[in-house]
Design brief:
Keywords: NAD, Oxidoreductase. Catalyzes the conversion of UDP-glucose into UDP-glucuronate, one of the precursors of teichuronic acid. This is UDP-glucose 6-dehydrogenase. This protein is α/β, with parallel strands linked by helices. The chain folds into 3 domains: 199 residues, NAD(P)-binding Rossmann-like Domain (Rossmann fold); 87 residues, N-(1-d-carboxylethyl)-l-norvaline Dehydrogenase, domain 2 (Orthogonal Bundle), CATH 1.10.1040; 140 residues, Rossmann fold (3-Layer(aba) Sandwich), CATH 3.40.50. It contains 18 helices and 14 strands. The protein has a 6-stranded parallel β-sheet, with helices on both faces. It has a 6-stranded parallel β-sheet with strand order 11-10-9-12-13-14. β5, α6 and β6 form a beta-alpha-beta unit. The longest helix is centred in the middle third of the chain and has 32 residues. The radius of gyration is 24 Å and the shape is elongated. The chain binds uridine-5'-diphosphate-glucuronic acid. The site of uridine-5'-diphosphate-glucuronic acid has 20 residues, from α9.
């Protein structure tokens, strides 16, 4: 089939590439000329495992093209995806200006019946707004094309996006008319061979499904962080508690890892946006408010542990100390630092007069862009280099390469012999046997 995708950000680029990979002819549109030129030369603007070779192969095969020319893309597409960003505006609601601008562009250029698909994460009711924007433009042109607006939310995880897209566990299609559903079924048929992964529903339910999924996952994380905070006070070990509850299939092993708080472009934004939607419809979302509040508190927890250690007396506090920081990205396998817990931690360390020597396998470039040049920040080329001359180590992101370090080497490098672990990567007995003091999340002290 012929597909047009508006927005070559995370969602648009991965979706477009995977649709090309299964044989569709995809044109990706972006208003950013430099990005489009880069993509046409094989420069991928994000780090995502497996994406680059797939983009290049499909581009070379002529199934994947990048352009700034919206009109030609609209003429090409039997299905028109809207996959542009929905950044939060001041009150946390999703800002629809980019989505509605694409809708207007479609209305201005479309020249036959169309299926318009919302792939961006958008609040309940957005499909109606997209429909109205397209209709207005059609009316202004004095034409009357038949079109559908479908909600087809994405469930990609950064770092696993290509795999999630190629092997989805479900494909949610919110549509009103059978013809639109059958066109979407044809589009997704290559991903839907072994069993039917397509879940059909009405448009508003599909829109809400996306938020419900992310809010449920965020709730699990905040719940576990709350349990970790209780464990810390009552002298229990949250890691043992986690193992003790995960085997219950009603609870499950996923998303029950306590840590330094959830970040990224989705959970913080989506929990807030769903809360705002609830309030707009007259419902105070007490649970969602608590999920967000717990997460905000949790992002400051590593620093609290650091302060607790350094305020113990023999030391003169955090000021003047140098901290090795392992991991800056909001999670492993990405260079994304949006809402990353590391950002809060670094700011707190700097505010307290400390210095940072940071290493992240992928996010250094992004961190340089965010923080710029500062005297109290040095980027290191590897994990060992970050330890050199540091007083203490803080682990913020659970990259695989941080999982089994040489504790003897850490002890030899650090001046204060203390490790703060925001992701519970180590066994307290192992690390303490090496002569290091160890602080983790919800594990005593
Ligand atoms: C999330 C969802 O997992 C995807 O299903 C969804 O499609 C996506 O948002 C989206 O809406 O686009 P993502 O933000 O890429 O995906 O990252 P996750 O792997 O979900 O991690 C989010 C945050 O939660 C990370 O900061 C991670 O460190 C944290 N987390 C995750 C925990 O603290 N504990 C856990 O047990 C799991």
């Amino acid at each position: 089939m012929r597909v047009a995708i508006f927005g070559t950000g995370y969602v648009g680029l991965v979706t477009g590439t995977c649709l090309a990979e299964v044989g569709h002819h995809v044109v990706c549109v972006d208003i950013d000329q430099a990005k489009v030129e880069g993509l046409n030369r094989g420069v991928i603007p994000i780090y995502e495992p497996g994406l680059e070779p797939m983009v290049k192969a499909n581009h070379a095969a002529g199934r994947l093209r990048f352009t700034t020319d919206a009109a030609s893309a609209i003429a090409h597409g039997e299905v028109l995806f809207i996959a542009v960003g929905t950044p939060p505006d001041e009150d946390g609601s999703a800002d629809l200006k980019y989505v509605l601008a694409v809708a207007r562009t479609i209305g201005r250029h479309v020249d036959g019946p169309a299926v318009v698909v919302n792939k961006s994460t958008v609040p309940v009711g957005t499909a109606d707004k997209v429909r109205a924007a397209i209709s207005e433009e059609l009316q202004a042109r004095g034409v009357d094309h038949d079109f559908d607006v479908v909600s087809n939310p994405e469930f990609l995880k950064e770092g696993d996006a290509v795999a999630d897209c190629m092997r989805p566990d479900r494909i949610v299609i919110g549509a009103t008319r059978p013809a639109a559903v059958s066109r979407m079924r044809r589009l997704y048929a290559p991903f839907n061979r072994n069993r039917d992964r397509i879940v059909e529903m009405d448009v508003r339910s599909a829109e809400l499904t996306k938020y419900a999924a992310n809010a449920m996952l965020a709730t699990k994380i905040s719940f576990m962080n709350e349990i970790a905070n209780i464990a810390e006070r009552v002298g229990a070990d949250v890691e043992q508690v986690r193992k003790g509850i995960g085997s219950d299939p009603r609870i499950g092993w996923h998303f029950i890892y306590p840590g330094a708080g959830y970040g990224g472009s989705c959970f913080p934004k989506d929990v807030q946006a769903l809360a705002r939607t609830a309030q707009q419809y007259g419902h105070e979302p007490q649970l969602l408010n608590a999920v967000e509040a717990v997460n905000n508190g949790q992002k400051g927890h590593l620093f609290e542990l650091i302060q607790r250690h350094y305020d113990r007396g023999e030391d003169e506090g955090v000021a003047g100390k140098t901290f090795a920081v392992w991991g800056l990205a909001f999670k492993p396998n990405t260079d994304d630092m949006r809402e990353a817990s590391s950002r809060r931690l670094l700011q707190q360390l700097w505010d307290a007069g400390a210095r940072v020597q940071a290493f992240d396998p992928e996010a250094t470039h992004e961190a340089q862009r965010i923080f710029g040049e500062r005297d109290d920040l040095r980027f290191c080329d590897n994990a060992d280099a970050a330890l050199e001359g540091a007083d203490a180590l803080v682990v913020v992101t659970e990259w695989k390469q941080f999982r089994s370090p040489d504790f003897g080497r850490i002890k030899a490098a650090l001046k204060d012999d203390v490790v703060f672990d925001g992701r519970n990567l180590y066994e307290p007995v192992d690390i303490e046997a090496a002569g290091l003091a160890y602080y983790a999340i919800g594990r005593g002290r």
